[in-house]
Write a structure and sequence with these properties.
The complex is a heterodimer of chains A (81) and B (340). With 81 residues, chain A is mainly alpha-helical. Chain A contains four helices and no strands. Chain A starts with a helix and ends with a helix. Chain B is an alpha/beta fold. Chain B folds into two domains: 167 residues, 3-Layer(aba) Sandwich (Peroxisomal Thiolase, Chain A, domain 1), CATH 3.40.47; 143 residues, Thiolase/Chalcone synthase (Peroxisomal Thiolase, Chain A, domain 1, 3-Layer(aba) Sandwich). Chain B has a five-stranded mixed β-sheet with strand order 1-7-6-4-5, with helices on both faces. Chain B has a four-stranded mixed β-sheet with strand order 8-13-12-11, sandwiched between helices. In chain B, strands 2-3 form a two-stranded antiparallel sheet. The N and C termini of chain B lie far apart (63 Å). Classes of the chains: A mainly alpha (81), B alpha/beta (340).
Chain lengths: 81, 340
Amino acid sequence: MASESEILEGLAEIVNEETGIDTAEVELDKSFTDDLDIDSLSMMTIVVNAEERFGVRIPDDEVKNLKTVRDAVNFIAGAQA
Amino acid sequence: MSAAAAPKGTGTLTAPAGARHARIWGVGGYRPERVVPNSEIVDVIDSSDEWIQERSGIKSRRWAGPHETVVTMSVAAAREAVAAAGIRLDQVEAVIVSTVSHPYQTPAAAPIVADALGLRCVAFDISAACAGYCHGISLANDMVRGGSAGFVLVIGVEKLSDFTDPTDRSTAFIFADGAGAAVVGPSDTPGIGPTIWGSDGAQWETIKQNESWLEVRDQGLDFPSIGMQGQSVFRWAVWGMAPVAQRAIDAAGITAADLDAFLPHQANMRIIDAMVKQLKLPADIPVARDIVETANTSAASIPLATERMLREGEIPHGGLALQIGFGAGLVYAAQVVVLP
């Protein structure tokens, strides 16, 4: 089970790998679309890689609710619990 | 009480005699005359050329005019494929048309195409959307080897512009028109590997005609268009289909390093790129990227890409190509073939 800071760190690495965005830029209050400029297909790639890394399932219907980095971290933490 | 019916037992059936192997002998394509650049469609969807290219890799597409129908485009592609195969038209014994945009509920397009080619052979349509061409190749392979036909014309054709909502931001720039065809016939050596195919109807709503014909009639709706849940399709196409492609390679008894071409359905450049990454294909293998100037022509996309790449010398005649189609249904089919 990963802590919230570990999830954030892992997520930042996944975002960096997909988009090249610096890991330090991936902060909890940032919006994936508005702040990080991540489009829907990159978001799906991030979701699938996060599923694999954290051993969780993020349904397609849930992805649209993950607006900020915090949303994603909370969802992953909840799904792991 | 009468006794249970018993067979006469006097007649023995003659089994059809098929060819030992089958292969693709030639491919042909038809690209509609009118080139439609992104600039022509961006205003309606409040978009830009850059936005479309970033999300799909598409720079332009062809949209068929009123004189270019599913049937006429099929005929043009078929004639080219027959010529490339080096056979006479009257040697064709079956015509399979894969399409989702033939504007008649019935009859099928195939008999009309056959008639236009001067043929009276078996002719039928299949509905397997973007996977239709690979379904057709598999059927043709089985027909040739099973003895139900000698040379088979497999045609993938779409006029998706008739079923596209120009204001739909998720599909307006994706769908396009065209036809591709292949001639499959007997061969001394194996030319079509085992097909890995299947369906997931639980996801039927991810790509579909938005309203049924009955809803259109009963609710007085406009002519229906095809809608798509892009993200769900993307996930399924990349992470669901890469293993299918790998299974087709394995079933063919080869390795990825043996391939001379990777010809995925031209759905979206992002899907193609992600799939190549997932498959860990050796970097030297040419990958079909016909989508840049053709967009997504559904059933026509693989034969159109094949025809272009062969013509431009990008892939070798006689080489091994992995082809995979996937789309509405959801359905998929993949096989390794020897290029004509």
